[in-house]
Amino acid sequence: MSTRERVVLDAAPSLGALYAKAAGSRLRALLPGGKAEGGTLPEAEHHLESLAADPARLVAYQRLVGDTVRDTLPSVFVHGMVFPVAMSVMVREDFPLPLLGMVHLSNQVNHLRPISSAATLSATAWAADLREHRAGTQLDVVVEVAEGGEPVWRGVSTYLARGIWPGSRPGAPAEARAPFTIPGRTASWRLGADTGRAYAAVLGDYNPIHLSAASAKALGMKHAIAHGMYLAGRALAGSTPHDTGYNWGIEFATPVFLPSTVDVAFTDRGDQTVFSGWGARSGKPHFSGSITTTAQAPGSGR
C-alpha cells in the first residue's frame, strides 16, 4: 500500500494556469533567497476522478497524427488527458526542480486493454526516482489510469533538469553514445513551423518551447521544437493494435527543431514493431522506440 499523501483534485487543472504557476516559481527561484533546487521529491500523489474524453478533441487528435478515427482511445491521447494531473505534481511548491526548460527523455507505457472513448476514467500521478544524469538530474513521473477501479493504462515519463545535480557536479566526462546507423527509410514527415501550436490546440500543452522561435529562445532553445508526444503519436498511429493490449516505449535523442523533415523507419517483428526517426538533412537520430502486443482479444483472430 502506498504511503504517499493523496491529494484529490476537484477538476482537471488548466495547463495554462499550471504553466503560469511554473513561470512564477522559476522567477521566484532566481530572486535572492529563492527556492533551492535539486532536493527531494514530494511524498504525495494527485488523484482525479470522472475524467472523460472530449469527442471533438479526440477526432481532432486522430486527424492531426494520422490515426484511424475510431471509438477507442489512442494511447498518446490518454497521456494528453492525464497530463494536467501529472503536471500538477510538478508545479507543487515542494517539487525540487524547475518545470520550464525541463527536457523530455523517454516514455514507457502499458496500454492494458482497449479503452472506450465513452469511458469514465480516474488518474493518479506522482513523481519518483530522483537520480543523477550526465547533464543534470532526472526523474520519473508516473500516472496510473483506471476505469471502474480496473487498471487500464500506466505511463512513466522521464524528464531531465539540465545543469542541476542532486549532489556535486560529476567530474568524470560523459560516456560516448553508440553511433547511430541510419536504417532503411519507410516514410518522411514534413513538420511545419506551426506543428507545436497545432498539437497544443488539440491537447492544450502550450509549453513555450514548442510554440514559436521567440518563446523557445526565451527558455534557452535555438528554435521551437516538436512535442515529444506528438512524435510518439505519429509513430504509434497505424502501428498499434485496436483490439488488444500493448506496451510501447520511446526514447528521445535530439530535439526536432521546427520546421523540419524527419525520416522514419518501421520494422515489423511479429508481435513487435520497432521504429526510429532522424533528421532528413542532418542524419542525426531524433527518437527510437517499440510497440509490443501483449494479449489477444477473445475472438479477434490475431
TrEMBL record:
<feature type="domain" description="MaoC-like">
    <location>
        <begin position="178"/>
        <end position="275"/>
    </location>
</feature>
<dbReference type="Pfam" id="PF01575">
    <property type="entry name" value="MaoC_dehydratas"/>
</dbReference>
<protein>
    <submittedName>
        <fullName>Acyl dehydratase</fullName>
    </submittedName>
</protein>
<dbReference type="InterPro" id="IPR029069">
    <property type="entry name" value="HotDog_dom_sf"/>
</dbReference>
<dbReference type="InterPro" id="IPR003965">
    <property type="entry name" value="Fatty_acid_synthase"/>
</dbReference>
<comment type="similarity">
    <text>Belongs to the enoyl-CoA hydratase/isomerase family.</text>
</comment>
<dbReference type="InterPro" id="IPR002539">
    <property type="entry name" value="MaoC-like_dom"/>
</dbReference>
